[in-house]
Amino acid sequence: MYSYRHAFHAGNHADVLKHTMLVAILRHLALKDTPLVAVDTHAGAGLYRLDGEYAGTSGEAQDGILKLAPALRALENVAPALADYVSVVASFNKKGQWKVYPGSPFVVHELLREGGRDRLKLFEMHPTDAKALAGHVAQMEAGREVAVARTDGFESLKAFLPPPSRRALVLIDPSYEIKSDYAKVTACIQDCLKRFPTGVYVVWYPIIPRPEAHELPRRLKTITNNAGKPWLHATLSIGHVAHQPGEGNQPQGLTASGMFVVNPPHTLKPAMQAALPQMVDILGRGRGKGHVLESS
Ligand code: SAM
Q1: Residue located nearest, by CA, to atom 1 of ligand 1
Q2: Cα–Cα distance measured from residue 15 to residue 239, given in angstroms and rounded to the nearest whole number
């Protein structure tokens, strides 16, 4: 049932958008002393090799972090959010090498405060990835503040809301392999806003020609507006490369994705106003490239 493996996609343009925004959100949340509970409902394997078999087969990181990082070096005024994201990824690598890519569990972990006051709850259903994730967490000696479970993230999340400290960041990042994931995401946000209206909820979604994908941000806006909470919506599209004669109309994989944030920190919009145009300039490659940034 679970055939999606994030290892094929690690470090692609969608991860660049998702993890840049995660870093920017967490930087702000970490400014306040009160303990934070972070929940990653769809965690993946946590760490990926960019020079390994999976990433090598798909080559997706070539249109993501591996294109972004060197291009930023040549830029005079790098958007702080992009510089911050790239430095987080770099911290998992030897200087000048880009062999390891941290997935959301380790991007989040990197930004949690030392001393064990913050907590990180990770859920992953794929048997191989759940095992790999548990291994990576153990290997990183992440400590007692990180918990991994091979259970359904949508359901497991409920037990942590509201958190005792009344501060939570939740990343909901399903693979959308199954059509019902779209409806689960909206139901989940609706439920979260009832349980804990002031949590920061972050949803990633693919922009693909499918009615459910198209409808998702619209539905999330309605739910969030009805709850009287602020939101921010950002998309990144790298566009399609022109087909060479004789190539036919080969599908080009995922070319765009979006992030919907409920209760965004006030610093997120200016951070993305600076970062998104640079992402498009560097990662954009043809027809349809661009970004959207809107908020309530
Ligand atoms: N959040 C990760 C990151 O940014 O590095 C990537 C996650 S990947 C897009 C989605 C993951 O969700 C897959 O590894 C898949 O096995 C897992 N998954 C699918 N359904 C799930 C569920 N109901 N609960 C928890 N994990 C699930």
Answers
A1: 43
A2: 16
Report pLDDT digits (tens) over 38-59.
999 999 999 999 987 766 666 8
Of residues 84, 129, 173, 181, which has the active-site annotation?
173
Is any ligand 1 atom within 6 A of the Cβ of residue 72? no
Question: Which residues form the domain of 76?
Answer: 6-242+249-295
Question: Ligand 1 center to residue 164 CA distance, Å?
Answer: 26
Question: Which CATH number belongs to the domain containing residue 82 in this structure?
Answer: 3.40.50.150
Distance spanning both ends of the chain, measured CA to CA? 37
Overall residue count recorded for the chain in this entry: 296
pLDDT digits (tens, 9 = 90+) for 193-217: 999 999 999 999 999 999 999 999 9
pLDDT in the model for residue 170: 98
In short, whether 11's Cβ falls inside 6 Å of ligand 1 is no
Cβ(43) to ligand 1 under 6 A?
Answer: yes
Domain count, the chain: 1
Is 189 inside any structural domain? yes
Q: For residue 173, indicate whether it is catalytic.
A: yes
Atom of ligand 1 nearest to the CA of 44: 14
